């Protein structure tokens, strides 16, 4: 059971950060995950008065406040225009609408959960995290940091001419994924570059970058070689949802489908 002694609605990020330095203090997002744990929290810090619940868009970036809900992300028109339905696809299996109206982007990324669809999807894009103390760093770097006492302020996705696809396999609707996969491609310094993010391996998502010029009319057999090569670069583990071997096979299939879909769009 979770017990909380003291609740504070922070008036500034500075206050939230200071309070969070105490050993038994915790920042709260939507509390959807935390409430299921066993912990004695001395002070719980609520960020909901700090204006972090907006998605801002300009010519260069999307800036997603840590207190934005997963539902806001799922429904954002600008993100849909830029990436089609891929982001919504990554989110809509997560429990249900009421749940996604409460779970936050900050809690989802800060948690660095192995099963995270949110992390898998955002990792494939040109994504940064803004930390109160640690500055703005790449999500791919943050994901390997140990959990500390910093505060995640926002997620920043740099806009560029990239195509995104997302897919996952679940044993039943709304369960954790057995495997999650995002594929992105676009020109980087004039070279066609592919990004593959595979999560729920069951370890947390990791990203792979490949400079591959792939002809749009490539045969299925040839594309399968690329997909197998990409999938083989990740490590996989076994748990109650699937074996390492099965997960690698799923990764090959999901990567192949996403690559094919991206290539077909460009025809
Ligand atoms: C039953 C269940 C099923 C789920 N299924 C899936 C799924 O299939 N796919 C998926 O991707 N996710 C899934 N999730 C995870 C969910 O989507 C959220 O990621 C999770 O609930 C955390 O978000 P939250 O806002 O509730 O964070 P909280 O539970 O409030 O916090 C989580 C952690 O993050 C810290 N934290 C929160 N915000 C900040 C911040 N701004 N700065 C620093 N630290 C912060 C908290 O201190 C805590 O340690 C599931 C969760 C549950 C409970």
UniProtKB/TrEMBL annotation:
Kindly list the GO molecular function terms attached to this UniProt entry. Answer: FAD binding; oxidoreductase activity
Alphabetically sorted, this entry's keywords are: Flavoprotein, Oxidoreductase
Q: Per its UniProt record, what InterPro entries does this chain match?
A: CO_DH_flav_C (IPR005107), CO_DH_flav_C_dom_sf (IPR036683), Diverse_Substr_Oxidored (IPR051312), FAD-bd_PCMH (IPR016166), FAD-bd_PCMH-like_sf (IPR036318), FAD-bd_PCMH_sub2 (IPR016169), Mopterin_DH_FAD-bd (IPR002346)
Give residue ranges for domain FAD-binding PCMH-type: 1-162
Task: Note one Pfam family from the annotation.
Answer: CO_deh_flav_C
Task: Determine the domain of life of the protein's source.
Answer: Bacteria
Q: What is this protein called?
A: CO/xanthine dehydrogenase FAD-binding subunit
Native source species: Faecalicatena orotica
């Amino acid at each position: 059971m979770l017990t909380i002694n003291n609740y504070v609605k922070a008036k500034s990020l500075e206050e939230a950060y200071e309070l969070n330095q105490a050993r038994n203090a915790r920042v709260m997002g939507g509390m959807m995950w935390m409430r299921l744990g066993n912990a004695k929290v001395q002070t719980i810090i609520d960020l909901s008065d700090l204006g972090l619940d907006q998605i801002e868009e300009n010519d260069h970036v999307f800036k997603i406040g840590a207190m934005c809900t997963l539902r806001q992300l799922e429904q954002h028109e600008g993100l849909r225009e830029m990436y089609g339905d891929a982001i919504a696809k990554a989110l809509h299996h997560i429990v249900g609408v009421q749940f996604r109206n409460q779970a936050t982007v900050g809690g989802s990324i800060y948690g660095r959960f192995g099963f995270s669809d949110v992390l898998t999807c955002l990792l494939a894009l040109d994504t940064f995290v803004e930390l109160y103390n640690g500055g703005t760093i790449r999500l791919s770097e943050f994901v390997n940091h140990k959990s500390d006492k910093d505060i995640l302020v926002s997620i920043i996705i740099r806009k560029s001419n990239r195509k995104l696809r997302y897919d996952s396999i679940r044993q039943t609707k709304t369960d954790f994924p057995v495997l999650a996969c995002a594929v992105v491609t676009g020109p980087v310094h004039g070279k066609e570059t592919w990004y593959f993010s595979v999560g729920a391996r069951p370890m947390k998502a990791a990203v792979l970058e490949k400079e591959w010029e792939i002809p749009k009319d490539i045969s299925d057999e040839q594309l399968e070689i690329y997909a197998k090569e990409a999938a083989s670069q990740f490590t996989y583990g076994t748990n109650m949802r699937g074996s390492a071997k099965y997960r690698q096979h799923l990764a090959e299939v999901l990567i192949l489908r996403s690559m094919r879909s991206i290539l077909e769009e460009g025809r």
